[in-house]
Specification:
Layout lengths: L8 H13 L2 H8 L3 H15 L4 E4 L2 E4 L1 H25 L7 E7 L2 H17 L3 E7 L13 E7 L9 E15 L3 H4 L10 E2 L4 H9 L8 E2 L5 H9 L5 E4 H4 L5 E3 L6 E10 L7 H15 L2 H4 L10
Parallel strand pairs: 3-4, 3-5, 7-8
Antiparallel strand pairs: 1-2, 5-11, 6-9, 6-10, 6-11
Helix pairs in contact: 1-2, 1-3, 1-4, 2-3, 5-10
Length: about 300
């Protein structure tokens, strides 16, 4: 006997999140709901379909054969729903509504929030959401509307996105002013050492190209914010983006700063949303304000002067 199953799109979204994350807790974090809500929605879907989609194991949720078959169809539905949403939003001429911006680190997000404050004052109907994450948010799925990303020089962002290159990001060598007499290799620097990023082979390669190739690499601080904290604490000297180091009054450049271009900054969005009024204006406004900061990104601003 044939029967028809009425599936809720939200149930499918929850299913896909669990299939990708492998646990209801991680899926809940992605969906911004409790893990119990995720578990309940998955169970509801299984009851409707009368099939088990996941094996519950001590390591997490593992897709069953039926679950694996469902993923392909669910992802097609997800893509169609996202495309429909983008097409409808692309015709929106209102300056009221949500604008979601994502960027790679908290130092960029700090600048973005500051720059967009005046924009939000101009358009009080805007609901601004800013996310700082190394994860590349999927603009096709509308995980974000605008992304500010830094890519290695010569490497372009995905071709299906609408992209505009803004400014080049330079790195320089920094030491904590408080610990300079102990760590600055130009003074005494008996305890001077480089702070590592996590991959020793890569660290040793870039150190070999600096003005201080004889200094050892120590530690592992895989994020810019951790590198800054370690430098402030006097654990070593560091190579940092100039837009980070030059804004920190606790840090100063070394005499031989090895000013080096490393990344390009891009502002990205999905082509379907190019004509959405509020997103277009927010994108243009943000691009203009970040371009105005080109001297800071390129290490040309007076050093260590707090704003």
């Amino acid at each position: 006997m044939l029967y028809r199953v009425e599936m809720d799109w939200d149930d499918v979204r929850y299913f896909l999140a669990v299939s990708r994350e492998g646990s209801v807790r991680a899926a809940g974090s992605i969906l911004a709901v409790s893990h119990s809500t995720v578990a309940r929605r998955v169970e509801t879907l299984e009851e409707k379909l009368k099939v088990r989609l996941f094996d519950r194991t001590p390591e997490g949720y593992a897709l069953t054969s039926a679950g694996r078959q469902m993923v392909e169809g669910a992802e097609r539905v997800e893509a169609e729903m996202a495309a429909l949403e983008r097409r409808l939003l692309g015709q929106d001429e209102s300056f009221d509504g949500l604008v979601r911006v994502t960027c790679a680190n908290e130092y960029l997000s700090d600048m973005i929030v500051r720059d967009l404050a005046a924009y939000c004052a101009r358009y009080p109907g805007i609901d601004l959401a800013v996310t700082s994450s190394f994860r590349s948010f999927d603009l096709s799925k509308r995980e974000a509307d605008i992304a500010v990303r830094m890519t290695r020089i010569g490497k372009a962002p995905p071709g299906h996105l609408l992209g505009r290159k803004l400014t080049r990001v330079f790195y320089a060598n920094y030491v904590a002013a408080e610990h300079a007499t102990r760590l600055d290799p130009e003074i005494v620097g008996k305890e001077s050492r480089w702070l590592g990023w996590g991959d020793r082979k890569t660290d040793e390669h870039w150190v070999s190209k600096t003005s201080y190739p004889h200094l050892p690499v120590w530690g592992s601080f895989g994020e810019v914010s951790l590198h800054v904290q370690a430098t402030r604490a006097g654990l070593g000297i560091a190579q940092l983006p100039c837009f980070v180091g030059d804004r920190d009054p606790a840090l100063r450049r070394l005499a031989r700063d090895d000013l080096t271009p490393v990344f390009d900054t891009w502002i990205l969005s999905h082509p379907d949303l190019r004509d959405t009024a509020r997103l277009r204006s927010a994108r243009d406004y943000l691009a203009q304000t970040l371009l105005a900061e080109t001297p800071l990104f390129q290490g040309e601003r007076p050093l260590s002067v707090p704003e």
